[in-house]
Here is the input.
Amino acid sequence: QVQLVESGGGLVQAGGSLRLSCAASGRTFRSYNMGWYRQAPGKEREFVAAISWSGGSTSYADSVKGRFTISRDNAKNTVYLQMNSLKPEDTAAYYCNAERGTSYWGQGTQVTVSS
Here is the structure.
C-alpha cells in the first residue's frame, strides 16, 4: 500500500508559479507510475500530468502543456509538479495518484490563481 501526501499549494496571482510536491510512503515507490489530477468546484476530476516509474516518459493534458512540468525523485520518494504561467482556470484542488494495477490517491492540495 502507498500513502501520498501533497504539499505546495496556495494562492498566487495569474502569471505566477508554484511547485507541488507529493511525498510517498513505502519502499516500492519507484515501481509506480505517478500522476497529478485536479478538480475544480462543480467539475469532474481531470488528468493533468503523468510520469512513468522510471521517469523516462511523461504526458500532459493539452491545457497545461508547455506550462507544467512533472518530475520525480525516486531516492526521495517524491513526485513534483512545477506550474508556471498560472491562469485563473488552473484553480482547483490538485491530487497526486500512484498507479500499479491499484490506484492510490492523496488528500489534495488547493491551488488558487487570482486574476
